[in-house]
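User: Round two. Same drill as before: sequence, then structure, for each protein.

Assistant: Same drill it is. First protein:
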Amino acid sequence: MEGSEIRQFGTLRLMKRTTDEQVAAFPIDEEAVAFGRDPTCSVRLYYPEISALHAKIVLQERKQAFLVVLGDAGLTIDGCPVLPSTNASLPTTVPVSNNCEIEIRKKRFIFTYPPKQLRAPLYNIDSPLKPENGGGRRKL
C-alpha cells in the first residue's frame, strides 16, 4: 500500500474478483463510509439490487470500525453472508477487523486500519478530570 493511501481512519481497497490485485483505493478521512446508489454515498455502486444506502462503515470513538448492513440484498464479510435486520431501529452491525474482506454484489473490498506506528493520537487518554470538590460525596 502506498503512503498516500494511508489516512487517519484507514483505507478501503477495491480488489479484482479472482486475484488479489488492487483496482482502486479509498483513503478514509471521515468517521463514516457509505456504500450505495445514492449520490451522497462515499462508494457508489450502480446496480438495481443495491439500495440507495446499502451499508456503511462507522468508526466508533474514532478507533473501532463497525459495518452496518442496511440493504435488502445484504453482503458478505470474510466469506459469511450478512443480511439486514428486520427491525429498522436495530440494524445488523458487525465489528470490522484489520484486512477484513467485504463483498457487495461481487465487488470485493478490503478494509485496513492504518499501521500502528503511523497512527496519530486520536484523542488524549489522560485520566478523567477530577471534580472541583475533590471527588467523593458532596456535603448537603
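Second protein:
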Amino acid sequence: MASTLFRTIRLHSFFIHPTALFRRRNGFLYCTMKSSQTQTATQEKQQPPKVKVPQHAQSKALDKIARDYEAIIGIETHVQLSTLTKAFCSCPYNYGSQPNTSICPICVGLPGALPVLNSKVIESAVKLGLALNCKLFLNSKFNRKQYVYPDLPKGYQISQFDIPIATGGCIDLDLPLEFGGGHRKFGITRVDLNRAGVPLLEIVSEPDMRTGIEAAEYAAELQRVVRHLRISNGNMQEGSLRCDVNVSIRPLGQLEFGTKVEIKNLNSFSSINQAIDFEISRQVLLHGDQIVQETRLWEEGAQKTVTMREKEGLSDYQYFPEPDLPEVILSQEYVDSICNSLPELPEMKRRRNEKMGLSMQDVAEYFDATISSGADIKLAANWIMGDIAAYMKNEKLSINEIKLTPQELAELIASIKGGTISGKIGKEILFELLAKGGTVKGLIEEKDLIQAS
C-alpha cells in the first residue's frame, strides 16, 4: 500500500472546445487550454537537441539509475467535473457536441458579461478535498491568469493562484506485488477551479514518486476516488482525467532536485508509466548541463517524448485578483454537512476488507454488494468467510460461480436477524441457495419454515 501527499486542490474550468494543457508553478496548480492546432504550431517552432533512446539503451539507463541515480516524480492531475452546466455560466456541456454550440457572452468574454460561480463546482472541490485528507481554506479567491491563445477570447483565465480551496492532503494506495507492494505515502499539494467553460479540479502531488508504475497506480487511485464521489466520470479517453508529470533525476544521496521536465496530457495509465520510464532513461543519458527545463509530449506510436515548448515563468502570467467574482467563503456547517455525506472511499473499503480477511477482489466485491443490500457488516463477513467459503472450497467453485446472489444473502441474514427463521434453518436454506439458486422468501414459504413466535 502507498500513500501520496497532496499540496493543493484548486478550481479551474475549460475553454470552449480546446485540448487540455496544464502547468504547475512553484508547487501550485494552474490550468491552461490549447487547441490541437496551437500545439502543432508550437512544436514546429522549437528546435531543441533531439536524443534518441533505443530500447537497449533505455534498459541500460534504467539499470544505471537503480545503481547511481534517483528519479523524482510529481503529478498534476486534471479532473473534469460532471456538472450540468459550466463553471461561470448556465451553458450546458456535453462531450462530443459540435464546437461553439453551447456558448454565451460569458463564455466568449464579451464586455459587460459577468461570471457567476456554479455552486456545484465548490461542492465537488470540497468533497474531493475532504476525500484526499486535505486542509480546507474556508476563505479562498479567484485570480486572472493572463495569456493569449486562439481559443481563449478573453486573453485571460479565471483560476486560483495564491489561496487554493484545499491543501496538504494525502492518499493511500496499494502497489502491485510484482513491483514490491507495500505501503508508501504520496503527497498532494492542492486542488483548484478554472475558467470560462467546463469546471476542472486540478490536484498536484508532492514529488514523492520514484517510478512510472507508482505514478500510474497513483493516477488510477485518483480515478477511483473521483468516480466513487460521483464528481467526475474520470474517463481518460474523453479528457475527463488527464495527467501532467514532472520528472527529474539526481545522484543518489543528493538533496537538491535536478532540472525538471514536464510531460503533458497523458491520458492512459500505460502512457504515464511508459513516458516516465522513457524520460528517466533520456535524462540519465543526458545528465548534466544538457537537460533543459521544458515541456514535452508523449508520442504513443514512437514510444518517446518530444519537445513541445520551453517553460514559462510565473511573471509571464501577470496574476491579479479576479475583480468580477467575490471571495469563496465556506461555513464550517457547510463543510461538515458534506463531510457527513461522503460515501465509504475505496481505500477505506480495502482496509476494512483486509481486516475481515476479504482480500480477494471478487470476494470483496461480493461482500460490498451484500452490505449495499442492507446486510449487517459483521454477519455478512462471517457467512462469506465461513459457510460460503467452505462450500466453494468443497465444490471447487469461485464466488462468481455460486447461485446465491448478494441480494439474497442479505435477505437471508435479515430473516435470521429479524427472527423469521432460526440460524439452523438459515444454514439449510443457504446450501440450497448456493447449489440451486432461488429466493429466500420463496423457500421459506415453500417449506413452511417460518419460526413460531
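The longest helix spans residues 377-395.

User: Perfect.
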